[in-house]
Specification:
By secondary structure, this protein is an alpha/beta fold. The protein is 39% helix and 17% strand. It is globular.
């Protein structure tokens, strides 16, 4: 009999979902089940390699369809990452972003009322903090207790944060009423190999390698966490009880202006040229950085510096772009 704990990862074909699934399989203490319908990107060779793991099972399911999860086995732990991310998408297809955030979450929670896990870990977003920081001047680094504010419903930038905020309320409501544990994790600029090119570091790598040194929002500052450190945080939360039913920031506290980040990426690539700043998109926060007191309290410590992370990310994109 297989006594390994059963873990479900939704959005397993995406950036976070893939790296978490891969690490869980390597630990060999878990039977890992992934859900993804590859609506955003086609299956790649790295995911095909994951499929060959003896303790990984893939379900190609469109979770936006009601009843799509009927018949799945019981899961001890559930990581819900399925969503449509990417800043460009917030502006270009906001309704798709909202549907991809809300419908799978509602359908998953309906399913979990019948098959209660030990814990559900839901991916919120640091985007949710921007309104309170901007309008009410909440301090940065930002703690999990900051209220969530949508400054302007007409700005499609908020399509992602609003859908994630609704998801947080839904997760907390269902988990508390059905009496299973949960964590809401708010990721702050996770980066690394295999994250597509619509996020800042791989976008800079792609653009700079092509000789285009344009940046957007150079005066804005962000903190970054390499994917391996983010996965370490998730594994700490998996069986932790001291932070059960809490909202937890995942990230690092080292702020860097985008202009300086761009210089580091340019140096890593080995290209020269004048960097020109076109300004930040409407609604882009000036600073985003988490207070990580909570995740540190259960043993989190960053292992990968920004310089190391950029080099590892560059290796991947140099081979694939």
């Amino acid at each position: 009999m297989d006594r390994r704990l059963k873990v479900l990862v939704t959005g397993s074909g995406g950036f976070l979902g893939y790296h978490l699934s891969r690490r869980l399989c390597q630990l060999n203490d878990f039977s890992v089940f992934g859900i993804d319908n590859f609506s955003r990107y086609p299956m790649d060779g790295m995911y095909e390699e994951l499929l060959s793991s003896s303790n990984f099972t893939h379900f190609e399911i469109d979770m936006s369809n009601a009843g799509s999860l009927t018949g799945l086995p019981y899961f001890d732990y559930v990581f819900h990452f399925a969503a449509l991310n990417g800043t460009n998408n917030f502006y270009s297809q906001p309704f798709s972003v909202i549907k991809a955030g809300v419908l799978p979450t509602i359908n998953l929670l309906e399913h979990l009322t019948l098959s209660k896990p030990k814990k559900l870990i839901y991916a919120g977003t640091s985007e949710s903090y921007a309104g309170a920081v901007e309008i009410f001047n909440y301090p940065v680094p930002t703690s999990e207790e900051v209220p969530l504010v949508i400054p302007d419903v007409r700005n499609s930038r908020w399509s992602y944060a609003a859908s994630k905020t609704l998801g947080e309320v839904a997760v907390a409501s269902v988990a508390q009423s059905e009496k299973f544990d949960f964590n809401i994790v708010r990721f702050h600029n996770v980066y690394g190999p295999r994250m597509g090119t619509s996020h800042v570091i791989p976008e800079l790598i792609k653009r700079f390698r092509e000789g285009d040194f344009t940046i957007f929002g150079g005066a804005n500052s962000r903190s970054f966490i390499y994917i391996d450190d983010a996965v370490d945080s998730l594994l700490l939360l998996l069986e932790d009880t001291s932070l059960s039913n809490e909202i937890v920031n995942i990230g690092n506290e080292d702020l860097i202006p985008i202009s300086r980040l761009a210089l580091r990426v340019q140096q890593a690539i080995g290209k020269t040229g004048e960097i020109t700043d076109q300004g930040a998109p409407l609604g882009s926060p000036m600073m985003r950085c988490p207070d990580i007191t909570k995740i540190r309290s259960i043993g989190y410590e960053s292992k990968v510096s920004l310089e190391q992370g950029i080099q590892e990310t560059l290796k991947y994109y140099s081979a694939t772009l």
